[in-house]
């Protein structure tokens, strides 16, 4: 069989799958009764001809026509969605996906049952985190997860409401406070019933307080009714907690939410001398 025939035979798969795993390719070839040895030979052939590149073990990207393996850019959201079989784009990366990010980020976050190790490719890095335990215990890992199309691929992405709560739940995954606060504050609308339902589902008192504090700061912009704040206030921790447990930054105590909040967040004084 000539190289030209090989290229034509599998070209549609590469057009439909700008990023794919070896398992994706195996499933595509399965009805054609192609042996594992031949599958490996095909991958090697396409790598040598520059049709695909190897991102990491078992993960590949298709090189678009007219581009070269050295120069083309792989969509990082597609890569994040393929880091594990059940990867869900989450946290602050959701805001970037929907165009609400404050500044360009090179770190992409996904949630999964068993996240892969931290991984970097060219200028992008990928950090996985486990689904919240409360979700896993209830079999609700895909609560407020939707399917979004990007470059012909279907990606699992959390809703803005879940992403907002997840970001406040684990801010250490999401950059500086300015990045977090400005990105979350750029959203024009939040379904507060969905956000509250998710807060109740993950059952973390500190996260409930952080969500309440954030919504109170943005009460006018997000049209937050007092009843939502009152519900969240009931869930706050009994003792003072830091806005971020891992950072434990000094700040002011906000008694309403039992939170110690850094001054820059409290005053939203980004870049100013405090």
Summarize the structure.
The chain has helices spanning 3-16, 22-29, 36-48, 76-81, 92-97, 133-138, 160-169, 177-185, 192-202, 205-217, 226-234, 263-267; strands spanning 19-21, 52-56, 59-62, 88-89, 107-112, 119-121, 124-130, 145-150, 153-158, 241-242, 252-254, 259-261. It is an alpha+beta fold. Helix 7 packs across helix 9 (192-202).
Describe the structure.
- With 274 residues, the protein is of the alpha+beta class.
- The protein folds into two domains: 3-62; 76-267, no CATH class.
- Helices cover 40% and strands 18% of the residues.
- The protein is built from twelve helices and twelve strands.
- It has helices at 3-16, 22-29, 36-48, 76-81, 92-97, 133-138, 160-169, 177-185, 192-202, 205-217, 226-234, 263-267; strands at 19-21, 52-56, 59-62, 88-89, 107-112, 119-121, 124-130, 145-150, 153-158, 241-242, 252-254, 259-261.
- The chain has a four-stranded mixed β-sheet. It has a three-stranded antiparallel β-sheet with strand order 1-3-2. A three-stranded mixed β-sheet has the order 10-12-11.
- Strand 2 (52-56) and strand 3 (59-62) form a beta hairpin.
- Helix 10 (205-217) runs antiparallel to helix 11.
- The longest helix has 14 residues, at 3-16.
- The radius of gyration is 22 Å and the shape is elongated.
